[in-house]
């Protein structure tokens, strides 16, 4: 056992990941070993992912958000994250990768994967993000941000879009980059 093709880190995959992320060969090899210790079949499933979210955000309703994040990371849509998808996810959390993170955020919002974001998709993701906010914290939100609907309206108004307009990736990134007020609406940062 342990000699299957899916268990080894191929030279092709290694060079692809080195080209598309700032990680070194040594880091990638170490992660690959650890990944296989945690996931002996080389795949992270939705339920593993959900467990992780429940662990890190114990006071939050994580199911909807975790499902959307999983969908956005599972780029080939096969229902599991392989090592390649896993490393690209790690790349999102590396410091100084604002544009990379926003490209991912766009994929998160593009629920039907048609390359554009509609107002309905904004409401869907904003609702999932809102559920991450523990009920006690929700009470202290500003009046115009204390429901998912208000947050979606605010976001959509920021982009200057009509009800049935769509948002392209570049517009989304330019609109969110370096704008803390808008960034706050598209994600939830747990209070330390
Ligand atoms: Ca996959
Ligand atoms: Ca879409």
Automatic annotation (TrEMBL):
Source taxonomy: Eukaryota, Metazoa, Chordata, Craniata, Vertebrata
Keyword Acyltransferase: no
Entries under CDD domains matching the protein: EFh
PROSITE patterns in alphabetical order: EF_HAND_1, EF_HAND_2
Keywords: Calcium, Metal-binding, Repeat
Protein name per the record: Uncharacterized protein
SUPFAM superfamilies referenced in this protein's UniProt entry, alphabetically: EF-hand
Entry keyword annotation includes Flavoprotein: no
Record GO terms (molecular function): calcium ion binding
Record Pfam families: EF-hand_5, EF-hand_7
InterPro entries the record matches: EF-hand-dom_pair, EF_Hand_1_Ca_BS, EF_hand_dom, Recoverin
